[in-house]
Amino acid sequence: MKTIPILSSLLAAAVAASIGTTQAATLETERYSIEVNALVDGLANPWGMAFLPDSSLLITEKGGALKHVKLDGTTRTLTGVPEVVAVGQGGLLDVAIDPDFAENQLVYLSYSEADPAGGDGNSTAVARGELGDNGLENVEVIFRGAPKYNSRQHFGSRLVFSPEGHLYITLGDRGSRMQDAQTLDNHHGKVVRIWPDGGVPEDNPFVDTDGALPEIWSYGHRNVQGAALHPDSGELWTVEHGPKGGDEINIPEAGSNYGWPVVTYGVNYDNSIITRETHKDGTEQPFYYWVPSIATSNMMFYTGDAFPQWQGDLFVGALRGQQVARLDMEDGRIMHEEALLTDRVGRIRDIEQGPDGYIYVITDDRNGSLVQIKPAE
Amino acid sequence: MKTIPILSSLLAAAVAASIGTTQAATLETERYSIEVNALVDGLANPWGMAFLPDSSLLITEKGGALKHVKLDGTTRTLTGVPEVVAVGQGGLLDVAIDPDFAENQLVYLSYSEADPAGGDGNSTAVARGELGDNGLENVEVIFRGAPKYNSRQHFGSRLVFSPEGHLYITLGDRGSRMQDAQTLDNHHGKVVRIWPDGGVPEDNPFVDTDGALPEIWSYGHRNVQGAALHPDSGELWTVEHGPKGGDEINIPEAGSNYGWPVVTYGVNYDNSIITRETHKDGTEQPFYYWVPSIATSNMMFYTGDAFPQWQGDLFVGALRGQQVARLDMEDGRIMHEEALLTDRVGRIRDIEQGPDGYIYVITDDRNGSLVQIKPAE
Ligand SMILES: [Ca+2]
Ligand SMILES: [Ca+2]
Q: Is A236 a residue whose pLDDT tops 50?
């Protein structure tokens, strides 16, 4: 395999590159020399990915296509995807497979859907279907965000299963509806927790609260585009895309308020002050935050054998920040942050650990890539 | 007061500037607009400072002078300072006042001293004396590092009193003697704890260990140039200057080994690997670390009223890094790091909170300054 530099400009220019083209670079990091390989090019703004038991992947493209991708570069488009509203930040978003996929072949998709009643609004929704030879079959919608609202912004969303089999769905505040994040009568700016069939767990925190939507797990979020289970505690961790400054890692607890937009470490994109307040009774502090924003996407705890010294560390992808932030975790605290891949691979939209213990990212680009990170030999 | 830019080059060029010249700049930080004033110029490589009850300061100069400085810029040189070995990193180092200074007028100085027996070695030592009208009187040496060793490197040292009245002295590994940091028969790479009269506390961790020096509190340090008591817990916190990469914050516990040079996050200045190992049984992990090194000097917990949103935060000065790192602390964890004063003031050698709640730093320069940081109006 040739080793040539990967540059985002080079990738962006290589629109005509054929699927399966490999471009590799060896990079030095604090603990490892790593080899970075673009296994697949030509993905149109890929958003989410999930490994199947055979080490192939499902990858969503924001425009609405679901791809089945093998690590050798073979790619095909699957059928059965719900219609999506591909505007602004909306479209086909995350993909996850059922914890019992080997038995039930269930695949879950999050996406922005038009108002089924015909209004001009939209919202995040989640559907599931059985993966057959050509695509998804017996597709059913298991979650519809409320209310429908006409916006191109802040749909979330990541899909994560709890150890007990709940499905967490992370959502966004829909931009101009940011105040909704503080009230419980809507799904904007919330993390929700449902059963995979769409049912509401009876121990959800607001099931007995008048006027509250029972799916809500936590609130006061801005745009949660990253989520992962902590490998030891089983807790949900999330990362939310802040305003200019103020990207946050949170550990959302049942019924807790993470403060947006009442308290934040961010400022608006035009530098106007949102609030000087960072603490308020009844709101939780982030576990960690970035100012200025790196524009966080998804997060991943590393548990593999390929990089023993990275075990337990938290990896966070960044869009505008064009990096993967490695947060060196020790005894529950962050000891250090290292920026990996800086300006070498592009805007990182999703990050996952493969069954081989390597790390995989997809890049947010019209000619997006699936990139593999493994130890250099 | 005129507001003109402070630039380190400007300060460095202003060798002829008279004492008391004020140069002010208004800088934006994440939480405050701050005004940065150089109250005093013309300090020759100042190293340590301590406020007196009347809000004037004692400031050491590395060459061996102890200055009495008022915030209006008045400066005089005090007498009674022990002779120092002003070579390389050695000289007159830290200064601290006794917790009962109002009653006993005792001032403590750390410095590098020549071998009293006439050998060519040197070590860190600590002396104390009573502050009279013109300087220190009745000076006595209360600590002498062992062994004496002929080196220009890594003397530590900061002086911090515990809530119970012990005196912590932070030390360095003397450079080429770095392996000494792992053995208990010497003071190299140690934090020691004594009584202010030089006596050894009977509950020190190694008082009953054969062959161990009884002053030792913790070991496995490289060059501890910063220390502070946590304002709530009363614990000693230290920051040590690492190799290229690997500056560490530690919370030294009695008898614990902080790993140097067996485990470290650093590499040598020539980029050669010290060790790929970061964890080893019997050694403690840092609380936080920097790679690359910012070249840490002293640290300070902020407890004042001038900057309410900075209360509880940890501020760490940096030499080559030419900044003050603000570590935003919440519930015992670091949520965020902000670089303050970057490349605006110069190499920061010491940082202290004043009785007025403002923050004061001194700069390591032949024409060093005392700089005041207060909220902009
Ligand atoms: Ca928040
Ligand atoms: Ca260490």
A: yes
DSSP for residue B211: T
How far away, in angstroms, is B63 Cα from ligand 2 center?
A: 30
- The reply to whether residue B335 touches residue A290, judged by beta carbons under 8 angstroms, is no
Q: What region does A359 belong to: left with phi over 0, alpha with psi -120 to 50, or beta?
A: beta
- Indicate yes or no: CB of B331 within 8 angstroms of CB of A285: yes
pTM over cut 0.95: no
Q: Tell me whether B331 touches chain A (CB under 8 Å).
A: yes
- Which domains occur in chain B, in start order? 25-328+336-375 (2.120.10.30)
Question: What residues of A are annotated to the active site?
Answer: 154
Q: How far apart are CA A38 and CA A227, in angstroms?
A: 24
A288/B contact by beta carbon, under 8 A: yes
- Max Cα–Cα distance, chain A, nearest Å: 63
Helix (H, G, I), strand (E, B) or coil at B87: coil
B30 touches chain A (CB under 8 A): yes
Given an 8 Å threshold on Cβ–Cβ distance, is B285 in contact with A331?
Answer: yes
Q: How remote is the CA of residue B99 from the centroid of ligand 1, in Å?
A: 41
Structure tokens at B296: 């840490």
Q: For the stretch B20-51, what's the b/e string if a residue is b when 16 or more beta carbons lie within 10 angstroms of its beta carbon?
A: eeebbbebebbbbebbbbbbbbbbebbbbbbb
Closest among A146, A29, A35, A131 to A79, alpha carbons compared: A131
ipTM passes above 0.85: yes
Contact B286 A333 (CB under 8 A): no
Closest partner residue to A335 (CB to CB) among B245, B286, B330 is B286
Using one digit for the tens of pLDDT, what is the confidence trace for A316-372? Answer: 999 999 999 999 999 999 999 999 999 899 999 999 999 999 999 999 999 999 999
